[in-house]
Amino acid sequence: MPDPSYAISRRLVYTPLRPNHITIIGTTIGLLAAWCIAQGAHAFEILGTLLFLCATVIDGVDGEVARLKFQETPFGHKFDIFTDNVVHVAIFTALAIGQFRNFPEANYPLLIGVFLVGLASCMVATYWCFLREPQALRSVAAPRTTKGKVRKALLGGARDLAREAG
């Protein structure tokens, strides 16, 4: 089954929308999803989940449209990753707020600590893997050793996977 974002991307290529516009639309939908989830009402939680699903599909569209229109930029790449993380933090925060609204008497300090440690870990991993652009990807010369070739292939695969996911 083809990726649902690709069907949307093929149609948006012929519109004046730029990839960063699509990123902003997806981010707005993601933040609206977080707001719905934070309400703590079952119907809003379902709506928020469906909106978040739409936001994740649109998140794939911006990168595809950038590649199809030849409008890839370093700013757009970083902007996409930044807005993705903003939406993810908003969703997890909304989940916590929604649970607190449903069960205010529960004990949450341990969960808050786990959340903050996880958030910090995700931020460090995102920077380390995707934003700092490892030296191996910047070098023009091809690696000479088998270890270097494997490392470059793995880093290139991770970069391509991130482009497909983002």
Q: What's the SSE blueprint?
A:
Elements: H1 4-12, H2 19-38, H3 42-68, H4 74-102, H5 109-131, H6 135-138, H7 146-165
Helix pairs in contact: 1-3, 2-3, 2-4, 3-4, 4-5
Summarize the structure.
By secondary structure, the protein is mostly helical.
Helix count from the secondary structure assignment: 7
Anisotropy-based shape: flat
Tell me the fraction of residues in β-strands, as a range.
under 5%
Radius of gyration (Å)? 19 Å
Could you name the ranges where pLDDT drops below 50 across 5 or more consecutive residues? none
Write down the secondary-structure element order: HHHHHHH
Output mean pLDDT.
82
Structural class: mainly alpha
Number of strands: 0
Helix content: over 70%
Please give the largest β-sheet: none
Distance between the termini: 19 Å
What does this structure look like?
Helices cover 80% and strands 0% of the residues. The chain has 166 residues and is mostly helical. α4 packs antiparallel against α5. It is flat and about 60 Å long. The mean pLDDT is 82.
Keyword list:
flat, 166 residues, mainly alpha
